[in-house]
TrEMBL record:
Residues 1-10 have a biased composition (Basic residues). InterPro entries: DUF167, YggU-like_sf. Belongs to the UPF0235 family. Residues 1-32 are annotated as: Disordered. The lineage of its organism: Bacteria, Bacillati, Cyanobacteriota, Cyanophyceae, Leptolyngbyales. Residues 11-23 have a biased composition (Polar residues). It comes from Phormidesmis priestleyi ULC007. This is UPF0235 protein C7B65_16790.
């Protein structure tokens, strides 16, 4: 199990995941932060990046925030 610090930037022109020097991730999402759309897109992107099922990714805190703690169950 791994916990990541993720900063989300919704409404970006293109999807992108950037690794920061401190080990955290900055994720640029196309979706707006409305009705959980950005969170769903975040989970899908992380699933593709780490090659794990979406069901193994949980947003532990920050559901309504740009700064999130995400748990990956590998």
């Amino acid at each position: 199990m791994e916990i990541l610090r993720v900063k989300v930037k919704p409404n970006s022109k293109q999807q992108q995941i950037e690794q920061q020097p401190d080990g955290s991730l900055t994720v640029h999402l196309k979706s707006p932060p409305v009705d959980g759309k950005a969170n769903k897109e975040l989970i899908k992107l992380l699933s593709d990046r780490f090659h794990i099922p979406k069901s193994h990714i949980t947003i532990k805190s920050g559901l309504l925030s740009k700064n999130k703690w995400v748990e990956l169950d590998r």
